[in-house]
Amino acid sequence: MAExxxxxxMFCCNWCSYAGADLAGVGRLQYPTNTRVIRVMCxxxxxxxxxxxxxxxxxxxxxxxxxxxGDCHYIDGNVHTEERMENVVDAMKHLGLEGRVHLEWVSASxxxxxxxxxxxxxxxxxxxxxxxxxAE
Amino acid sequence: MAELVGAVxxxxxxxxxxxxxxxxxxxxxxxxxxxxxxxxxxxMAQLDKTFPTLDCSMCTLSPKLAEASRHxxxxxxxxxxxxxxxxxxxxxxxxxxxxxxxxxxxxxxACELCLAKCPSKVLDxxxxxxxxxKAIYLPFPQAVPRVMTIDAEHCLYLTKGKCGNCKxxxxxxxxxxxxxxxxxxxxxxSVILSTGFTPFDPTELEQYHYEHPDVVTSLEFERLLSxxxxxxxxxxxxxxxxxxxxxxxxxxxxxxxxxxxPNCSAVCCMYATKEAMVAMEHDSELETTIFNIDVRAxxxxxxxxxxxxxxxxxxxxxxxxxxxxDIDPVTNQLSLRYEVEGSTETACEEFxxxxxxxxxxxxxxxxxxAEIAGVSMDEYGNIATTxxxxxxxxxxxxxxxxxIAAPKDIPDTVADASGAASKAHSILASERGTLVTERTYPxxxxxxxxxxxxxxxxxxxxxxxxxxVDVPAxxxxxxxxxxxxxxxxxxxxxxxxxxxxxxxxIKEHNLNRVVVASCTPRTHEPLFQDxxxxxxxxxxxxxxxxxxxxxxxxxxxxxxxxxxxxxxxxRMSVARVALLDPLYTQKLDFNHGGLVIGGGVAGMTxxxxxxxxxxxxxxxxxxxxxxxxxxxxxxxxxxxxxxxILDPMIAAVKxxxxxxxxxxxxxxxxxxxxxxxxxxxxxxxxxxxxxAIIATGANEFEPEGYFGYGSDNVITxxxxxxKLDEGTVDATNVVMIQCAxxxxxxxxxxxxxxxxxxxxxxxxxxxxxxxxxxYVLYRDIRTYGVWEELYTRARELGVLFMRYTEDDExxxxxxxxxxxxxxxxxxxxxxxxxxxxxxxxLVAPDGVxxxxxxxxxxxxxxxxxxxxxxxxxxxxxxxxxxFLAGCSQAPKLVxxxxxxxxxAASRACSILAKEQLETSGVISVVDEDVCxxxxxxxxxxxxxxxxxxxxxxxxxxxxxxxxxxxxxxxxCKGCGSCAAECPTGAITSRHxxxxxxxxxxxxxxxxxxxxxxxx
Lengths: 136, 1015
Ligand code: FES
Hints:
The complex is a heterodimer of chains A (136) and B (1015).
Chain A: E1 8-13, H1 17-26, E2 35-40, H2 48-56, E3 61-66, H3 77-94, E4 101-105, H4 111-128
Parallel strand pairs in A: 1-2, 1-3, 3-4
Chain B: E1 7-11, H1 15-26, E2 30-34, E3 49-50, E4 55-56, H2 57-70, E5 74-77, E6 80-88, E7 91-98, H3 113-117, E8 121-123, E9 132-134, E10 136-137, E11 149-150, H4 156-160, H5 165-169, E12 182-188, E13 190-193, E14 197-199, E15 215-217, H6 218-225, E16 245-252, H7 268-282, E17 287-292, H8 302-312, E18 316-319, E19 325-327, E20 334-339, E21 346-351, E22 353-358, E23 360-362, H9 364-373, E24 398-400, H10 410-428, E25 454-459, H11 471-478, E26 484-490, H12 496-508, E27 513-518, H13 521-534, E28 542-546, H14 548-552, H15 559-579, E29 587-588, E30 594-597, H16 601-612, E31 617-621, H17 642-655, E32 659-663, E33 667-671, E34 677-681, E35 686-689, E36 691-694, E37 699-700, E38 714-716, H18 717-726, E39 733-737, H19 754-768, E40 773-778, H20 788-796, E41 800-803, E42 811-813, E43 816-821, E44 827-832, E45 835-838, E46 842-843, H21 848-855, E47 882-884, H22 894-912, E48 917-918, E49 924-926, H23 936-940, E50 946-954, E51 959-967, H24 977-981, E52 987-989, H25 994-1005
Helix pairs in contact in B: 1-2, 1-10, 1-22, 6-7, 7-8, 10-22, 11-15, 12-13, 15-25, 16-17, 16-22, 18-19, 19-20
The complex binds FE2/S2 (inorganic) cluster.
FE2/S2 (inorganic) cluster binds next to helix 3 of chain A.
C-alpha cells in the first residue's frame, strides 16, 4: 500500500506567514507537498467553523498561521486568533481529533521556520493517520 | 521669482528617502526618488531585527518598498546619481546620471534564468561580502524595482567580450550590452538630501584585527543573524562551528578623537544589545558580552530593553574599552584584555567571535552630493543644520534628513524624513496636484447579473514553474473546471505583451473573472488587477494562484506531486474567483482643517507647518502663555537663548491668518473620526477638523524625596538655568547628580536629555567662573550623537566626573555630598558643596489620560503616548488621522521635537491635501437585519470601527428601539476579525466572505471542482 499522504489545509495571513511562505520559495527551501494554502488578510479572520468545515470535508489536518504576537498588521488581531484557536484545539481533544489542528506564528522573514512548520505538521499527521472523518 | 514647480527630487532611497517620497506623493506632489544602487531600501533592508521590540526589519520595510514603487506620483530613478543642481528654491533643474544597467527594465521579468547561467561570481554587498552573487543580479529577494542589473565591472562580456550567456538565455530579449550611461534633466521645486551614512571601516584600526575571519563588523553580524543571510540565520565561525562566546566591542570608529571621529554614533549600544539578544534567541547556550564606555540606552523603551538584556537574558555589560583584540599565534584563538571596573586588575578572556560595533560615518557620496548642492557641512562632514531648523540646509529649498545630518536611529530618521517633506511641501503648497497624473480607465462593465465566465492564465515563468510543474497538463485540467471559459499557457504572464494579451482574451471571450496562476500576489496582484481594470473589469474580480513560491520552487524534486498541487491551488482559486464580488471604494467629503493640542515648541511648529500649507488650524494651549517646557529653560545647547527661537515662533503663530490660537483653554469633547472630527473647547467654542496632532509635552519632574531636594541649596537643572541667567549662582563647589528620580522602579526609563543639559550647564558654570569646582555624579553619560562634543568640552574645562550605581547612590547632607566612585576603585569621597543640582527626568504632565480618552489613543506605562509603530510610524497613532509629536511621545531634545512636529504636520497634511477621503473596498459591513447588537465586534476590533447605534425596528405587531452594530467604512481596515467573532453571521468581511472561504475549502476537498456539490 502506498504511504499515507495527508491532505492539509493551511491558513496564512497576508502580512507574515504568507510572506514567510514566499520567502521559503525564494530560498528554494524544500518541504512536503501536502499543504494547500488559503490566504486571509489577518489570522483573526479565521473563524472556527472554517476549521470544522475543512475537517468535515476530509482534511487530515488544519494548520493555522499568522504573525508573531506583537507583529500583527492589525495591531492585536492575532491575540484573538490565539484565543479562538485554543478553544478549537481543546475541542478537538473531545472529538477524537486531537493533534489535527495546530497554530503557529511565522514571520515574513522566517522562510526556514515556514518549511519546518509544514514539515513537522505533515509528519505529525502522518503519524496520526487519516482523519476519521475522511470519506473513503 | 521663477515659476514654482510642483515636484521634488529626493536623493537617497533608504528609509528616509522613501518616507519623504511617500509623504510628498500622498500630498499631491510629484516625486523623483533617486537611488544610486539598483534597489531602494538602504541599510534597513540589511538589518535582521530592530531594537527595542525585535521586530523583523524586512517585514516592516518591504510594504513601504512596494508602496513607493506603485505610487502613481513617485518615479523611481534607481542606479542613478545627481550630477548637477541649478536654480533656486521653487524651481531647480537637477541633472541625473542614469547609469547603464544593461537590462531593459520594461522587458525584464526577474525570472532569474540568467542567474543560473552567469559564470562570474562577485562578493555580495547585501550580505556584507560574506556570500557571492552573480555579475547579473537582483540585490536582494525583495528588491524594488524587480529588475536585473549587470555589474559592468564584473561582467565577462562587458569586460572581455566573452560569455554573453545572459543574453542567450533571456527569453524576453531584455539584455542590452550596448546600453550607455545617460543624463536626464528633471525640473523640481525642492530637493531633499537623504543619502545616509556608510558604516565605519575598521581596517584602519589595526589593533582590532578585522582581518581575522571571526572578527566581524556589526553589520556583518546582522547578516549572519538574518534568515536570508549567508548561513540562513545560523551564526557560524570561519571553521563552520557555532560560537559559544561572543564579545561586542563598542565605539569602534566613534568617540575616538585620535582618528578625527570624536562623536557618538547614537545607535551602536542598542544594536549591539539587540544583536546579543537575538543571538541568544538562536542559541540559548550562547554567552554574550558587551564591552562599553557608557551604555547609551537613551531612547523610548531602550533602558528597559537594556535592563532586560542584562538582568533577564544574562548579557554581560563590561565597562571597559579593550585596547585591541589579541590573537594566539598558534591556535588563532581570539582574546581580549580589559580593566576590571572597581579594581586595579586587568583580565584576559577568550572569545570565539568578536563583533566590532562600528559607527556611522558620513559617506563619500553624501559629501559629494552636498558639494553639488552647495550646502554647508560641519567639520565632521555632516550636513549643517540648526536646532530650530533641523531639516533646513544653508541653501533655500534644499532640505536634509536622516543620518546625512547626524547619526540617528530609524524612528528619528523617519521623523526627520517626514519633517523634510513638510518643509518642501510648504514651499510648493500652491502647486499641489499640478504635476501628478491620474490614471484613467475605461468604464467598468456590470457583471453582477452574469454567470461567472472565468479565464485562467497558467504561467511557465520561463522554467521557474514549467521545469517542475507539467503546465500543459494543468491547463488541460483547468479547462474542465466549472465556469472556466478559457485557460491557456503563457511563458511570462507579467511581461508587457502578455498583459496586453490578457486584455484581448477578456474581450474576446467576454470574461467576467480572471485567475492568473503564477507567483505571489504580494508582489504581482496589483499589476494584474490593473490589467483587469484596463479591460473594463472591476479589479476585485481577479485572483492570483501562487504556483511558484508555494509550489514549483519548494517541490523541485517532486514534479508529479507539484503538478497535482498546482491543479488543487488553481481549482481553489477558480472556486474563489467565481464568488468574488466587485468592490468599490467610497469617496467622502471631509473637513480640511487641522487641530494641534499643546502650545510648546512641538505644538507651535506643527501648527505653523499645517497653516503654511494653506489649511486652517486650531492651536490649543491650556496654560495662559505659549512656550511650553522650553520656556522654563533659558539656553540651548548651541549657546543661544531659548527666547531667540521661542519669540519669533510665538510671533509667527499669532500672526498667521490660518491659525486660531486658544490659550488658557482645553479641549473637552471630541467625536467623529478622521476627516470629520468635532470638538468642544472649555470656553464653549465648537470646532471642526479633519486631523489632529497631540503635542502635550512633558514637565521636569519635581524630585521630591531625592537627594535632599527641597532644601535651599538643592535645585533642579531648570532652576539653575534661571539663576545662571539672573547671574545669581553664588557657589564655588557645585555637584550635579544625574538620574535624580529617573531610571528607577517608579520611572524606569531614561529621560534622554538630562546628560546633555547637565553638560551645557556645567560648561556655563565653568565659563562664568573658571575657578568653580564642578562635579557630575552619573550612572552613564548619555550625550549621544553630536552632543558628545559638550561632554568632551566639559572635561576639557575641568569638570570632574564620578560614577555611582543605583544600589550605591550618593548621599546629600548639609554642605556635603558623599559618593563611592566606581571609576576609582570604589573610593569613597566626601565633597564639600554649596550647591547641588539635580538632573531630574521629564515626566508626562497631568491630563494625558484625558487627552488619550478623547481620541481613543494609547499611552504607555510611563504615561507617554504610544505611537503606531516604534520604528516606522514614530508620529502616527494607529487611529487614522491622529498624530503625535514632541515630548508627549517620550523625552527629547528641541531639534528632535521640531523634527517630529514637522513630521506630524506632514503626515496630517498628506490627508488634508486630498480632495476627498477614499475608503478601502476590502472592509467589513453589517447586515442590520441579522445583527443582535451583542457588541462582540466592538470588543475585537483593533481600531474602534464598529459602534452600536440605536435603531427603531418596525414590525407588524410592535415598534421598538434596539441596538445594532454599524461599521465606519472610513475606519475599518479589513482584517475580518469582527466577522470571525460575530455569532450570527451578520458581518460580512468583504473579499474574504464566509461564503468565499467556504467555497475554497470545498474546492480543496473535491477534486472535480464541483463547488455546488456541498451545500
Ligand atoms: S496580519 Fe498576520 S496575524 Fe494579523
